[in-house]
Amino acid sequence: MKLSHALFTAALLASTPVLAQAADPKTVTAGAYKIDSPHTEILFGVSHFGLSNFSGVIAGAEGTLKLNPAKLADTQLEVAVATQTVLTPVDKLTGELRDPEWLDSAKFPKATFASKKVTQTGADTADIAGELTLHGVTKPLTLHAKFVGAGLNPMKKIYTVGFDATGVIKRTEFGVSKYAPYIGDDVTLTIHAAFEAAN
Fold this sequence. Notes:
Blueprint: H1 5-15, E1 31-35, E2 41-48, E3 52-58, E4 62-67, E5 76-82, H2 91-97, E6 110-120, E7 125-134, E8 137-152, E9 159-170, E10 186-197
Antiparallel strand pairs: 1-4, 1-10, 2-3, 2-10, 4-5, 5-6, 6-7, 7-8, 8-9, 9-10
Pfam family, one: YceI
Protein name: Polyisoprenoid-binding protein
Domain Lipid/polyisoprenoid-binding YceI-like: 32-196
C-alpha cells in the first residue's frame, strides 16, 4: 500500500535532521542567491470604497539577490513577476485585473524591481530603496525588509534565506487609475520571499 503524499512528506521530515536556523542575520552566508519561486508571494491590498479592505496575490517571482550581511550597502536585489499571475478570490475580478484597463498583462507582461540602495535600520531590518517598473512606468519604491531565517532546507538540501517586506505604491502614478479614488489609490504590498543559494 502506497503512502499518501502527506504521509510521505511527514516521514521524510521525521527522518531528516533539521539544522539550527540562523537567528542572527550577520551569520547568514554571503553570496549569490536566486528566488525560490514556489515559496515566494506578493500580497497586495486596497481599500474597497472606504468600507472594507480587499487583497490578492501575485506569484511566480523570479530574480537574484547578491547578499553581503556584513556590509548591507553592497547588497543587490533584482526581481521580476509576471502580471498574468495576479489572482484574487473572485474569478471575474482576476480576469479584469489582467485586462487593458488595469494591469494590461498582454502589453506589460512583467513588473520589475531593482534595488539602488540598501540601508540597515535595525538588528534584523533594512530599507531597500529601488525602482519599480509597472504598467510601463518606472517610479521609486522603498521596501521595508525584515530577516526571517536562514539555514538548510531539509527537503531540498539547499541553503535558503528568507525575508518579509512591506511597501506602498500609488497605482494612479503607474497609469492604473480605473475606479480611483473609490477603489483605493494606495496599494499596500506584503512580500514573503525565500532565496536559495545559487551554486
